[in-house]
Design brief:
By secondary structure, the protein is an alpha+beta fold. The chain contains eleven helices and four strands; from the N terminus they run αααββααααββαααα.
């Protein structure tokens, strides 16, 4: 199932619509897919795992060896009359494995299974990376909105302070009212500094994952095909989660390792063909009058049987070791299964809870806007104090921040839920930054190679460095969502939740 709509559909709001030049979530994911060093390293690791198949298969293929030597007899025994002064020899041996007790067969099966597991692990790495990218993307949007809200709050409190001082000068307010306004402004300024530092940190995390600084980030699209209940999410996750499937492949490969270990105490049979050539370079028998042959050849053909009788307990230890390794792999499958179930249920709960928080926070924001306007109006006729205004402004800010945070949490949790269900990988996202990386292509190109000199050029480095990226600032690149703007207050708007909420 494709979910192209994830990157092209309608968006949940955090801020107002941005210009067409804003960076989209799709573009951020493409950058991470093509330049993230963690993903590139996992691809290289999988290519290394691919090579275990021809390595294992080579143990069952013929082997040819050529040995040669040149010797100078610098000191000869006094009673040696036919010893040559020098000699050259060459030996060639062809060995063909006929029976290895199943070691080769099981090694090849284990290697192939681990290749399949490695491909699933690569899928898991993609999913984890994309989840992290979505989190970083949403963190920047959230923190930028929070900086905007706090900046707006500082401006409002600064105006309140100036008004309080003016009214104090004419005797309309007391020194206590002015002090309260000063304290709230100072607190708001410290909150703004904290929010700005968090925004800088989020932007630096974005650079770490994606390799480029965030500009104006576009609204993320709606998440499609969300499960209707946690049981459905768990059911899909148990079938499709790449980490769980990879753990199962490791378990199967460990089973083949037991067969490989058992083969160490079984006989091995090889067919051997050998040939040799020697040349004494005219120095054999040089001190005698007799003519002696200076060159010669020899050839051998036969079978070799290796029958282990006693190896100090090593084969039994290797078998026990392989059995415990397989048991470890079985337990890890159960551990991973537990983790997948927990992740799916937790992500579902956070997603649903955040949606409820969004609805409640929208009600609170609308209500706090009206409340603030009412308190200000009542203060103008003497029914409310400056402290009442300050409290109302703080409550509005708190509800706005809660709304922004809930929208971020809902999106990140929803994407994490899709990731746990195996639906957040490159093949699902419909990325258009070029052809997707195909791990099977490399495996198919090397699995049957048997030539010793079939080397490849060094693979290209795709992970990009960020040393030239400028240090990030807390500058806000967009205006606030009208839903979050505390002015003007729409007196005609109903206080509603959900899709009916104005400016949702």
């Amino acid at each position: 199932m494709r979910f192209l709509s994830l990157l092209s559909g309608s968006a949940i709001l955090l801020v107002t619509a941005t210009p067409l030049s804003a960076e989209t979530l799709r573009e951020a994911l493409v950058k991470a897919y093509t330049s993230n060093p963690t993903l590139a390293a996992q691809r290289a690791n999988l290519r290394a795992i691919d090579e275990n198949v021809p390595i294992a298969r080579s143990q069952g293929l013929p082997g040819v060896q050529l040995q040669s030597a040149y010797t100078e007899n610098v000191v000869k025994a006094a009673n040696s009359f036919v010893s040559p002064d020098r000699s050259g020899t060459a030996n060639a041996t062809l060995s063909v494995p006929l029976y290895a007790g199943g070691a080769v067969r099981n090694s090849v099966r284990a290697a192939k299974t681990r290749v399949e597991g490695g491909q699933l692990s690569l899928r898991g790495t993609e999913s984890d990376l994309f989840s992290a990218v979505v989190g970083a993307y949403m963190d920047v949007i959230r923190d930028e909105a929070i900086v905007g809200l706090n900046t707006q709050n500082v401006r409002v409190l600064d105006v309140n302070l100036q008004a309080s001082r003016d009214r104090f000068q004419v005797g309309d307010l007391t020194r206590t009212d002015v002090a309260q306004s000063e304290a709230r402004l100072a607190l708001a300024q410290s909150q703004l500094q904290t929010a700005q530092a968090r925004l800088i940190s989020s932007r630096e995390s974005y650079i770490r994952l994606i390799g480029a600084a965030p500009g104006r980030l576009d609204l993320p699209p709606a998440l499609p095909n969300m499960p209707g209940d946690p049981d459905n999410a768990v059911s899909v996750a148990l079938k499709n989660n790449p980490a769980l499937l990879a753990a199962a492949k490791d378990r199967d490969a460990a089973g083949f390792d037991i067969g490989t270990a058992r083969a160490n105490r079984l006989p091995r049979i090889n067919a051997n063909i050998g040939g040799s050539y020697y040349n004494y370079l005219g120095t054999l028998g040089s001190g005698t009058a007799s003519a002696v042959g200076q060159t010669g050849t020899a050839a051998t053909v036969g079978l070799g049987l290796t029958l282990p009788l006693y190896q100090g307990g090593r084969p039994a230890a290797q078998i026990r070791q392989a059995q415990d390794t397989r048991l470890q792999a079985i337990e890890r499958v159960t551990e991973t299964e537990r983790s997948v179930i927990s992740q799916a249920r937790s992500a579902y709960a956070v997603w649903k809870s955040s949606l409820e928080v969004i609805a409640s926070s929208e009600v609170a924001v609308n209500a706090n806007k009206l409340s603030l306007e009412g308190v200000r109006a009542e203060n103008s006729v003497g029914n409310r104090t400056i402290l009442d205004i300050l409290n109302a402004e703080q409550e509005l800010l708190n509800s706005q921040v809660t709304l922004v945070t809930a929208r971020r949490d809902a999106y990140v949790a929803g994407f994490a839920l899709l990731a746990s269900m195996g639906r957040a990988e490159a093949r699902d996202l419909g990325l258009d930054g070029g052809p997707l990386y195909d791990p099977v292509r490399h495996y198919e190109s090397v699995r049957n190679k048997i030539w010793d000199f079939a080397s490849e050029p060094d693979p290209a480095v795709t992970g990009t460095r960020t040393t030239d990226t400028a240090a990030q600032t807390s500058a806000v690149t967009r205006t606030l969502d009208p839903m979050l703007d505390s002015r003007p207050v729409d007196r005609s708007a109903k206080i509603t939740a959900g899709e009916q909420t104005p400016n949702r």
